[in-house]
Structures are given as structure tokens and as C-alpha cells.
Amino acid sequence: MLVAITLIVSFCLDGIVSNFIPIHSQLLIPLLTLMSLLIIYPYFNHHEDDYLKVAGVLGLCYDIVFTDTVFLHCVLFLLVALFIRLLNEWFSNNIVSIGFMAVLVIAFDRILEYSILSLVGFFAFDGMYLLQGIYSSILLNVIYAILLYVVTDKISRKFHIRKID
Q1: Is the CB of residue 145 less than 8 Å from the CB of residue 38?
Q2: What is the pLDDT of residues 6-21, one digit of tens each?
Q3: Which of 11, 60, 81, 101 falls between 20 and 30 A from 71, CA-CA?
Q4: Is 130 within 8 Å of 114 (Cβ atoms)?
């Protein structure tokens, strides 16, 4: 239940925040749904198949609601989910590592997205545009990931919800 609420809140906040932030913002590009994928991974307790299914469906919903690129974010979210699984093998689950993993997830997602879009000819690949996309996404999303981690951790401790640490 905590996983579903986290995903729904993050998905809705992505839409709400994008209404208030200009499309060419230099500091605040929301990727809140991706940050929720980072936070919910420990709650799947080694059921990676279920986690990947959730990531794929979430990416498809993201494509349908927010973008015109069908299946792009479905594939991206699956690849990012695999990356998050790999990161969770290397790092423990605490507030500092969540902040660091959030930066890595943002960079990984942006590099993949720009690479795929440039391969299909959507736009010419420009390294400065990629770097701007990465650093403009970090501030808002790392703060959100840390806040979401603190809230979900408190709730899981209060209600004794098992997760991987």
C-alpha cells in the first residue's frame, strides 16, 4: 500500500509541479516519478520481477499522460529500474546514499534519454545541452528523494513494513 501511495503521489506531483515551473527552467526540472522508483525499490524485498513490472507500467503511464513518445519512458524506466537495483547492491539504504543515488539516477536517465532521442534523429546530440539537462534536474529531485525517503522510512518503521536496508 505504501508503494502504491508513493507512486501515485509522485506521479501526480510531476504533473502539478510541471504546471508551475517554466518548461525551460534552469534549476527545477521535475523527475519525481523516477525518484519514487528509487525510494520504493527496498519495499519489494528481492521481488525484482514485480519491481520491473511496476517500473514498466509506470513508464507507460508516464508516456501516455505526459509525453507524445509512446514506449520511450517505458523502456527508460525499465533501464533505470535495473540501474537502481544495481545501485542498491552497492549502497546501503540511508539518507546520504539516497541523495547520492538520486544524482546518479538523474544522470543515468538523462544520458539514456538524450542518447536515444539523438539516435532516432529527434535532435542533434549536444554535450552542453545534456549537461544542462542533468544539472537542472538535480536540485529539486534530490530534495524530493530525501524528503520522500524520510517520510516513507518513518511510516515503514511505525507500521512495521519490511524493506531491504
Answers
A1: yes
A2: 999 999 999 999 888 8
A3: 101
A4: yes
The pair phi, psi for residue 126, each rounded to 5°, is: -130, 120
The C-alpha atoms of residue 14 and residue 108 are separated, in whole angstroms, by: 19
- Asked if 11 contacts 124 with a C-beta cutoff of 8 angstroms, the reply is no
106 phi and psi angles, rounded to 5 deg: -60, -45
Handedness of CA 15, 21, 24, 29 (dihedral sign): negative
CA distances from 145 to 28, 114, 124 (A): 14, 23, 31
Contacts of 86 by beta carbon, 8 Å cutoff, 6+ apart? none
Among 96, 91, 83, residue whose Cα is nearest residue 149: 96
Angle between helix 95-119 and 72-90 (nearest 10): 150
Burial class (CB in 10 A: 0-12, 13-18, 19+), 117: middle
Q: What is the pTM of this model?
A: 0.93
Q: What are phi and psi of 30, to 5 degrees?
A: -80, 130
